[in-house]
């Protein structure tokens, strides 16, 4: 459905001198070493056991995170720290796959020739995002792969206008723009997961019966039977996040949904199922791994991850999704509602790591930088 990356997206490097300079990032640059040290210090809490695990433990074959086809990383949309940690995680996964690819081919990591994970190997990592739709895929591919002088990748303002950011998403551009630049430099293809916002709003007002014909033709089966998901949806409309999450572990035997919210709930399920379907179609068509970035409500296990897995099973090719939810609060969520929690507050939490990354960005702004230093 989505197909491979456009021609010209090859990550095979043709200019030895250019690549030799970029390869400097792997071993010698002190600012890059700072990023590697921060990645070594990231702790994820196992969502079932509550055990704190270092990120490097999870980036090895056989681990739940490493082996996943789809890695869903949540965000609070206006949190710069959440977005910085997403970029740090994407870079850590891509870098680990790069090292393993080179090792498997008997090529030194700093060699000026050889493949990178992007586009030319099964280790490729793409980034799926909630804030763009399938219809925008040509625009997203132009950002990453069009190297022409006047192409969309030539200036942030051109891409911002072409993707209609201020109408389609409208959150603070400065929080999201670093991701787009990061993906450009690292050749992470960006995949628009969503359907147009107006379609979601139409269903929210009139239910699935009001869905336009073009949408009906693209709809995956919508599972509206998950009562715990329905209760979580309603709870999050009327109570603080931590209270709603705490109730996710309770039985639903004596709970009943509010019929007046049926249309809104159908829109929420449409949202999750459609994004899960886009992610599955990409992985089936192209392969590799997809890191999906979406609001936290979409990445609890009962949302995109489990819907992705059910769709894959129905298609005859079981696949695995893993979820990482940024978490601020004294009490952890009930066991099993997320695979991993990224503690953002407290000593060593994501907020403090993100502050170090922001300080590095400011320190290196306007100076020669060795990717990824100063871009995360």
UniProtKB/TrEMBL annotation:
Segment forming the signal sequence: none
UniProt xrefs under InterPro entries: Cofac_haem-bd_dom
Domain Haem-binding uptake Tiki superfamily ChaN: 66-307
Protein name stated in the entry: Haem-binding uptake Tiki superfamily ChaN domain-containing protein
Species this protein is from: Cladocopium goreaui
């Amino acid at each position: 459905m989505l197909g491979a990356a456009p021609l010209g997206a090859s990550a095979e490097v043709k200019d030895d001198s250019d690549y030799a300079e970029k390869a400097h990032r792997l071993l010698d640059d002190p600012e890059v070493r700072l990023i590697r040290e921060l990645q070594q210090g990231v702790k994820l809490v196992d969502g079932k056991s509550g055990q704190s695990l270092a990120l490097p433990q999870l980036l090895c074959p056989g681990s739940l995170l490493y082996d996943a086809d789809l890695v869903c990383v949540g965000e609070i949309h206006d949190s710069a720290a959440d977005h910085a940690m997403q970029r740090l995680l994407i870079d850590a996964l891509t870098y680990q796959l790069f090292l393993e690819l080179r090792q498997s081919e008997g090529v030194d990591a700093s060699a000026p020739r050889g493949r990178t994970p992007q586009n030319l190997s099964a280790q490729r990592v793409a980034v799926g995002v909630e804030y763009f739709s399938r219809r925008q895929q040509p625009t997203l591919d132009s950002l990453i792969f069009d190297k022409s002088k006047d192409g969309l990748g030539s200036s942030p303002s051109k891409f911002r206008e072409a993707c209609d950011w201020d109408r389609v998403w409208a959150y603070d551009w400065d929080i999201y723009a670093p991701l787009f630049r990061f993906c450009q430099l690292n050749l992470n293809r960006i995949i628009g997961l969503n359907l147009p916002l107006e379609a979601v709003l139409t269903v929210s007002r009139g239910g699935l019966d009001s869905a336009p014909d073009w949408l009906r033709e693209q709809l995956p089966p919508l599972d509206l039977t998950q009562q715990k998901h329905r209760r979580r949806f309603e709870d999050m409309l009327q109570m603080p996040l931590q209270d709603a999450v705490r109730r996710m572990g309770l039985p639903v035997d004596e709970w009943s949904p509010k019929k007046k919210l049926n249309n809104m709930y159908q829109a929420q399920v449409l949202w999750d199922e459609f994004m899960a379907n886009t992610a599955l179609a990409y992985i089936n068509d192209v392969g590799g791994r997809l890191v999906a970035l979406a609001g936290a409500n979409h990445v609890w296990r009962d949302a995109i991850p489990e819907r992705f897995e059910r769709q894959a099973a129905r298609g005859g090719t079981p696949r695995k999704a893993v979820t990482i939810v940024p978490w601020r609060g004294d009490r952890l969520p009930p066991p099993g509602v997320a695979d991993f929690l990224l503690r953002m507050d407290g000593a060593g939490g994501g907020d403090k790591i993100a502050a170090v990354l922001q300080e590095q960005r400011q320190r290196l702004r306007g100076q020669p930088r060795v990717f990824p230093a100063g871009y995360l």
